[in-house]
Amino acid sequence: MNKYDRLARRYDRRWASYLRESIGRTLADVAIQPGQTLLDVGCGTGQLLVDVHKSAPGALLRGVDPSERMLAVARMRLPDDVVLTRGEAERLPIDSASVDWLVTTSAFHYVRDPFVARREFRRVLRPGGTLVLTDWSAEFLTTRLQARWSKATDAAFQRIYTALELQAILVAGGFDVTVETYKINWYWGLMTARAVKSR
């Protein structure tokens, strides 16, 4: 059983403020239209998908997460037409060129191979599709300290990146990229990349 299987039932309460702010920053860069498809990679308990379902009821929504218990919580709060599947960023169980928007929030620091994940993101996006990626930023001392602690205490944790490192990873994969760094409170320093798949 992984960390998020154990945390699933209390995850939303424990991280309520962080989730609200990080999801809000991610969705600020999403302009989904009716009939478009959005995939949330590392969807967890489905909070972001709930927000999109409310704001864009005509959208087609999918979520992927490695934790079956997190997905179970998501299934309880989302309608049946939202497709939730167990899977990982490096091997997405999604058809190629089938997604208009791919979002991932606070999950990239768990990705073992960012280059394989980048290739998967590009594969599932349609030409002109957009990736919106929010994650911890190594620009901030407090976040670097948190990453060091997480690396020592969580076997699944991999690493965090600076904005330039993340931009370089995505540009090399055929994306047009902008990255914004910011703090959501005194402790958490994040960044959001908006990356459009080059045609």
- Radius of gyration of CA atoms, rounded to a whole number: 16 Å
Main-sheet strand order equals 3-2-1-4-5-7-6
Biggest pleated sheet: 7 strands, mixed
Structural class: alpha/beta
The overall pLDDT, averaged over residues, is 93
The CATH homologous superfamily: Vaccinia Virus protein VP39
**What are the secondary-structure elements, in order, as H or E?**
HHHEHEHEEHEHHEE
What percent of residues are in strands? Answer: 25-35%
| Termini Cα gap | 41 Å
How would you briefly describe this protein structure?
This protein is α/β, with parallel strands linked by helices and 199 residues long. It has helices at residues 3-7, 11-14, 16-27, 47-55, 68-77, 114-124, 141-153, 163-172; strands at residues 37-41, 60-65, 83-86, 99-105, 125-136, 175-183, 189-197.
Description:
The chain is α/β, with parallel strands linked by helices. The chain has a single domain (3-197), classed as Rossmann fold (3-Layer(aba) Sandwich), CATH 3.40.50.150. Helix content is 37%, strand content 26%. It contains eight helices and seven strands; from the N terminus they run H-H-H-E-H-E-H-E-E-H-E-H-H-E-E. The protein has a seven-stranded mixed β-sheet with strand order 3-2-1-4-5-7-6, with helices on both faces. The relative contact order is 0.15.
